[in-house]
Structure formats: C-alpha cells, structure tokens
C-alpha cells in the first residue's frame, strides 16, 4: 500500500476509484536506474524548494505492460531492479534520505536476439515471462514480398484486410466447429 493510500485508510476516508487503459511502457535499452525506479524531482526542488518524487517507468507501468526491446542486453543492475520489484510487487526508492514506495505490479514483455554473442537471458528474469517464442527471419524472397504486401494492406485498411481474410472458409475453422459440436454432445 502506498503512503497516500495508507493515510486515507487511517483517516477512514473513501479511496478514490477510477478506470484506465492498461499502460504499455517502453523500457529503453540505455535507461538509468533513476529513470526506471524514479527519483527526486529536481525542477520542483530548485524552483519551489520542495522535495517531490518523480515516478519512474516501473510506477508508470503499474498494472500494465513493461516492454523491453533487446531484453538480453539490459544492464545487470536493471535486471536486479526488475526482479526485486516483480518479486515483491513494490518499488522502493531512497534518494538522498527521501523514501518513497510505490506499487509495481508489471507484466514484462520483451524481445531478444537469438544470436549467442549478444548475451543470454538470466533464468530468474526468463521465469517472469509467461511465453517464449522463437521467431526466425523468412529467407524466401517471394514469401517476404507477400508478407510486406500483407502488412501494407493491413496498415492502409485494417477492417478490409480482416474481412478479406474472413471471406475464405478454411478447413481449420470447419474442423474447429465440428470439434466443438462433438464436445458439446458429450457433456
């Protein structure tokens, strides 16, 4: 529980509720620990003479997705920060004697290069990812052209692209329907 929520509960005040879209925050490869965890807001400290906290990417990604491109190239100290906050669900920052704790329930997503020379992913971090998929580059030039053309069609008209794909009946969809009917009759 954050300090703000703890204070409201101590006073028996109602907690404000709101709905929001699930945040998706990018963690850049060269991010510093201050940027990830948060730090004192220097601008407010200098202009207003107040200690104020500037939340980091973990606080912004709370209850959302933290996307790490090239996750295997992330600095070890940032991997430790991610593991600590993921294990406890909290991000505690103590810059210059100022302590601040904020919830950090993030769902990590990432991409890594499979080339061995770029570093392996630590097993503790790998456990935080729910799914792993090996994606390889298509080498057939004709198929690559078809993929690019399909992407361009989707980018220019997503609804039309989906409708075009749905008008062609596939064997798999008919198999799925018949399988569902068989399973329903067994119940």
From TrEMBL:
From start to end residue, where is composition biased (Basic residues)? 178-187
Which ranges are annotated Low complexity under compositional bias?
Answer: 167-177
Q: Sorted alphabetically, which Gene3D superfamilies does this protein's record hold?
A: P-loop containing nucleotide triphosphate hydrolases (3.40.50.300)
Q: Which SUPFAM superfamilies match?
A: P-loop containing nucleoside triphosphate hydrolases
Region of interest (Disordered), residue spans? 94-123, 156-187
Q: Which domain of life is it from?
A: Eukaryota
Q: In its UniProt entry, what is this protein called?
A: Magnesium chelatase
Organism field: Prorocentrum cordatum
Q: What is the lineage of its organism?
A: Eukaryota, Sar, Alveolata, Dinophyceae, Prorocentrales
């Amino acid at each position: 529980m954050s300090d703000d929520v703890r204070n409201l509960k101590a006073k028996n005040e109602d907690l404000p509720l709101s709905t929001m879209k699930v945040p998706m925050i990018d963690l850049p490869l060269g991010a510093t620990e201050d940027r990830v965890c948060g730090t004192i807001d220097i601008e407010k400290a200098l202009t207003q003479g107040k200690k104020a906290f500037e939340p980091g990417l973990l606080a912004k990604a709370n209850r959302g997705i933290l996307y790490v491109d090239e996750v295997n190239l992330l600095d070890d100290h940032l991997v430790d920060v991610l593991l600590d906050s993921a294990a406890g669900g909290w991000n505690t920052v103590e810059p210059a004697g100022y302590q601040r704790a904020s919830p950090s329930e993030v769902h990590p997503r990432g991409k890594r290069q499979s080339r061995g020379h770029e570093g392996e992913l630590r097993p503790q971090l790998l456990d935080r990812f729910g799914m792993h998929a090996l994606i390889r580059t298509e080498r057939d030039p004709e198929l690559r052209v078809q993929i690019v053309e399909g992407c361009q069609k989707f980018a220019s008209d997503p609804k039309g692209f989906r409708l075009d794909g749905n008008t062609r009946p596939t064997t798999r969809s008919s198999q799925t329907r018949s399988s569902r009917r068989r399973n329903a009759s067994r119940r």
